Amino acid sequence: MTATSWTPTLSTKEGPIYLAIADALAADISCGRLPDGARLPAQRRLADDLGIDFTTVGRAYAEARNRGLVEGKVGQGTYVTARRSPPRAQPSGLVDMSMNLPPRFPNSVLSHRMWEATKDLEGQGLDLLMRYQEPGGIIEDRATATFWLARRLPGLTFDRVLIASGAQGAFHAVLSVLAEPGDTICTEGLTYPGFRSVASHLRLNLAPVEMDEHGLLPEAFERACREAKPKALYCMPTLHNPTTRTMPLVRRRELLSLALSFKVPVIEDDAYGAMIPDAPAPLSALAPEIVYHIASLSKCLSPALRVAYVAVPEGRSLRVASAMRASASIVSPLTSAIAARWIEAGLADAVCDEIAKETATRLAVAQAMLPLGVESSPSGFHLWLSIPAPWTRGELVSRLRSVGIGVVASDAFAVSHPPEAVRLGLGAPASVDELKKSLGVLADLLSQQPAVSTMVV
Q1: 3-state class (DSSP) for residue 424
Q2: Hey, is 188 helix, strand or coil?
Q3: Which of 108, 135, 278, 402 is deepest in the core (most CB within 10 A)?
Q4: Taking a C-beta distance cutoff of 8 angstroms, is the pair 206, 324 a contact?
Q5: Are 341 and 357 in a shared domain?
Q6: Is 18 within 8 Å of 60 (Cβ atoms)?
Q7: Positive or negative, the Cα torsion across 431, 344, 382, 202?
Q8: How confident is the model over 301-332, as pLDDT tens digits?
Q9: Domain that holds residue 333
């Protein structure tokens, strides 16, 4: 087949030229200018046409192959293949909103920079790939973690910082230090299912503490301290999962005063703190001597990293690091190094900004489409929906599942009595259009009586 006479129209936006060529190739395939099976110009010829280096075109074609746009045939050239793969099917064309994921952002230049930054790790040689590291992370990565946390925890020192295998690994290590099987841990009445799972595995009892619209109630915590004699309090004061509530500063101080009075250590889950620049001071900033601060990177940076930064009270690092060794040996050196590289290069802040922009777009769509009774945060990509009567959470979850939409009923979060509510994750849909489809079905169901929508015979 004769090679197509194709010259890309390159974008004027900033970024590598080879990415601009790959983007132009994708656009011309999408609009039909380059049909399936079309043979692209030879790399050297295209380089001459564009007046650029031959290797730049080679990188562009390699990028296009990675995206599934083209394939190379030895001795024959490079051909368009993007339209041969059938589209990925989903039930009723809808999506699962049960997972609470950060939304994918459309900034391809930034995503490329994230991948490019990982190549810099090659300079660390086989020491990174073929050696065990100390539990809690190596000195260099812990220094970067200290820098990251210190922006929310002023005065934080390196000796108090450890790196864990995600929030789950951190929960396991800290609880192992603070409690023994049969002990009681206080937590909000609605709490993170991952924490419930670890507590159950360690055979710990959870004592629910009542909440209001501002989060955990100090007077309820005081009562629990007197009655349940807890070994620790676990809470998420900033952008609580699932309710999206953020505890005001006055209440944080009151809560910590009680924890100090009763000598109850606090485990602070700060998964969303990096997403909210104007959030009240973390509990660990107010009472570092009693708070174990856990800041996972899953929500603000990438769920794939499975890295959490942990700030512990002074003098407790060795015990927590030993617990990490016993449960997970070490945090993955490779993922820890990637996280550190992204932070050092300024990419982590850029990713947070992109996630925030996409979150704002999706939140505006959800608030416009859903009825009253939705709790949300300007920085949060999940919603807490109180279900209007006569619907119940069981009926709604079941009906949505039948059309391919997943949401999480309050039972997954409730330590005692689950309310009639569900959590919706806005980040899982691949696009805003997919989100609109799912929310449209949900809004339509809620506008009907449950009996009208049932198909039971």
Answers
A1: strand
A2: strand
A3: 135
A4: no
A5: no
A6: yes
A7: positive
A8: 999 999 999 999 999 999 999 999 998 888 89
A9: 132-345
